[in-house]
Specification:
Length: about 725
């Protein structure tokens, strides 16, 4: 779709038509900013008075699945670039019948309009423009995203500096799913030679396009002229650029950016330094007609919007005479209703929830397609968030009043009340590099930090940025991407990191108050596969009564090693190992006396010495289980341990003795998932099976409803009293009943 997602109007605001929606999401539509073959852009305002440019997509285009994917990626890329160099994203819904994206309303003309108004820009203004755009692209590239369609019409000229908009064909580096090799996508006049040839468009391709934009800003024409697309593509690939009219001080640098070989072009950081080493004033260099245009657009924002256009006479008559809605209006209203799902994401801590009632039963399900009958209909989702990239595992986290979850190329902070976007946490897409104590978000510092020391930083809830290091440990190699933050308890942070000198890996504790290391214990290095995949073997830590509990997979086989360490010195007090094929627990089931583990049997290990207090399940018929754990990952609540038993369903065990309290009356073919721990409330036990999420009544011991889903992560949020289901490409919030 063309660019106007965040642009100001070319002229006066256009009135809404009779069939434009009244609102989308939390935004009331005021006027039209523009409309074309792909969709419509509106001036909109939130209930709190925030003015936005709201971009929609025509329904016929939204029916294309690949286009919805592009639209979703566009909002991700816009969030990555941030509001310094782009239009801040307020909200979006790529799943709505009419997908929409609400961004900051950027006040100013597009660069091509600015040049038409005031002529080519002065050299100092072009340099400041280029330096800011280079830094904007660098920010994208730092999150492994390329723009692929930088051109004058995708750059807004504002009094505060240029802003990059329209990320409709931006994508992650190396992702060929949407536009495969051999297919050229972009604008021919500003494509790179490799992009014009249908090859991979790397960050160097964005540098080539930026140079073309600067030629236009400085000289009033593009580097390869105009004409038919085929002629432009040929000149981009084989002809030398036309730099006539470019100031002599700029021409050599832009020529270097426009060479055909990507390896010979400067990086964005180098280009920014060469263009404006000491920064530069952008607005002061703008021609007077451009400044006047910005002022005019600024005043237009708060003018009374034009009245909505009336419906055509024939449509109004059909409604009045027929005593109801016309087919066209009915479809429009239906589309607006379907679009009411808010794009959101969220999460919670591994905790147990208190139950609550939610009114009367909603009816009964019928058995169909081999699925077992239940007595009630499942609750409706509170919201469903579209995930930009598939992610297996990775529990969302509750951090104070914010939900933090990985979404595409960034980690987002989202409101748990309504799922609205709050902030970005860039370069935190690796889930093992951040953790929370429930109050603040802590992270291992970016591996590209200049001093190379391992450091722990807090991430700001206001803007997501790294703050000054709370812990800095030069003895460890901070450049290793497999360093993990295992958890935070009070003033202590637990880490697994590689030593700077010897390469020895250690589990260590450090003080957030003093910034000093408290203790370390050697541990196994990541396996060869982990290093090649750049994804470490899970090592996890939890403060429990009597010390710090560690658990991790053995380097080979399916053994799960559990150990307890002294909180002050790190000295190992005991260790235990058991065969447990399947997933590693996200957090263990523990209480004041035991840690509970499920494998061949359910075991309770004493926290005092690690010895078994009891074992349940030996010799029991658990159904047909081949080559997998017989008992799943358990949950403990109020003196009762809940665990999936083979293919039989939930069993409830006395936490003190291991005696059977009750067993689920599950029909044949339930096929519960043992690698996902149940969630327990006062009235229900929530458990995943092959068909979805089951709610098992604690009194009748039967499943009362099933919500169909392919989720592989189940996370409770005790504060919001919600459950989060993570599917491959979606996060779903359900109310706890």
């Amino acid at each position: 779709m063309s660019a106007p997602a965040a642009r100001a109007p070319r002229s006066a605001l256009a009135p809404l038509t009779h069939d434009d929606p009244e609102s989308l999401g939390d935004f009331r539509l005021l006027a039209r900013l523009g409309s074309g073959g792909m969709g419509t852009v509106y001036l909109a305002r939130s209930a709190g008075g925030r003015t936005a440019a709201l971009k929609t997509v025509h329904a016929r285009i939204a029916a294309d699945t690949s286009f919805r994917t592009r639209f979703r990626l566009e909002s991700d890329a816009a969030r990555v670039i941030g509001d310094r160099y782009g239009a801040r994203v307020f909200a979006a819904d790529a799943l709505a019948a009419t997908p929409w994206l609400a961004t900051e309303y950027v006040i100013g003309p597009q660069l091509d309009e600015a040049v038409r108004l005031g002529g080519p820009l002065p050299e100092r203004c072009v340099r400041a423009l280029g330096a800011d755009l280079a830094r904007a692209l660098g920010q994208l590239h730092g999150s492994d995203v390329v723009h692929r369609d930088l051109k004058p019409s995708n750059i807004m000229v504002t009094a505060a500096g240029p802003k990059v908009i329209d990320f409709g064909i931006a994508r992650a580096l190396g992702d060929e799913r949407l536009t495969g090799t051999g297919t050229a996508a972009g604008t021919p006049a500003y494509m790179s030679p490799e992009q014009a040839g249908g090859l991979e468009h790397s960050p160097a391709g964005d540098v080539f396009a930026l140079a073309g934009v600067l030629v236009f800003a400085a000289a009033g024409h593009g580097p390869f002229g105009g004409g038919q697309a085929a002629d432009l593509l040929y000149r981009v690939r084989y002809a030398q650029p036309d730099l006539s009219g470019v100031p002599a001080g700029l021409a050599p640098l832009l020529a270097r950016c426009l060479v055909k070989d990507p390896a010979q072009r400067p990086t964005t950081a180098e280009l920014a330094e060469l263009l404006a080493p000491e920064g530069g004033s952008f607005a002061d260099g703008l021609p007077q007609p451009v400044l006047a245009d910005i002022a005019r657009r600024s005043a237009a924002v708060w003018q009374e919007p034009p009245p909505r256009l009336a419906a055509p006479a024939e449509e109004a008559t059909s409604v009045a005479d027929g005593g109801g809605m016309s087919r066209r209006r009915l479809l429009a209203v239906g589309g607006a209703t379907a679009g009411g799902v808010a794009l959101a994401a969220g999460g919670g801590l591994w905790a147990l929830l208190g139950g609550r009632d939610r009114g009367k039963d909603k009816g009964k399900d019928k058995a169909a397609d081999g699925k077992q009958p239940t007595s009630q209909s499942p609750p409706d989702p509170l919201w469903k968030a579209d995930m930009a990239h598939p992610l297996v595992g990775g529990h969302p986290l509750r951090v104070g009043g914010m939900l933090v979850t990985v979404v595409g190329v960034a980690t987002h902070g989202i409101s748990p009340q309504d799922g609205t976007y709050m902030t970005d946490f860039f370069k935190l897409e690796d889930t093992w590099r951040f953790a929370t104590d429930g109050k603040a978000l802590y992270a291992v510092r970016d591996a590209a930090a200049a001093d190379k020391a391992l450091a722990v930083v807090a991430r700001s809830a206001e803007n997501g940025r790294e703050q000054d290091p709370l812990v800095r440990l030069p003895a460890y190699d901070g450049t290793d991407v497999l360093n993990q933050i295992l958890g935070v308890d009070g003033d202590t942070v637990f880490l697994c990191a590689r030593s700077a000198g010897s390469g020895q890996w250690s589990v260590l504790a450090a003080s957030l108050k003093t910034g000093k290391e408290l203790w370390r214990q050697p541990t196994a290095a990541p396996s060869k596969d982990a290093v090649e995949l750049k994804h470490p073997t899970a090592v996890r830590a939890q403060a429990v009564r009597g010390g710090v509990l560690l658990w991790q997979r053995a380097e080979q086989g399916d053994a799960l090693r559990v150990s307890l360490h002294d909180a002050g010195s790190g000295a190992e007090r005991w260790t235990a190992s058991l065969s447990a094929p399947g997933a590693t627990p996200f957090l263990p089931a523990t209480d004041e006396s035991h840690v509970y583990l499920g494998a061949e049997t359910v075991q309770a290990l004493r926290l005092t010495d690690g010895r078994p207090a009891w074992s349940f399940g030996e010799g029991r018929d658990v159904g047909r289980v081949v080559g997998q754990r017989r008992y799943g990952i358990p949950t403990v609540r109020d003196g009762v341990v809940y665990v999936v038993e083979g293919t039989r369903g939930i069993v409830a065990l006395d936490a003190r003795t291991g005696g059977l309290r009750w067993a689920e009356s599950a029909p044949e073919g339930t096929d519960p998932l043992r690698d996902i721990a149940p969630v327990v409330t006062a009235k229900h036990v929530y458990s995943m099976d092959a068909a979805g999420l089951r709610a098992v009544d604690s009194r009748s011991h039967r499943a009362v409803w099933r919500y169909e889903t392919k989720a592989d992560v189940l996370t409770p949020d005790p504060q919001a009293k919600q459950l989060y289901l993570r599917e491959q490409r979606a996060l779903i919030a359900l109310p706890v009943l």
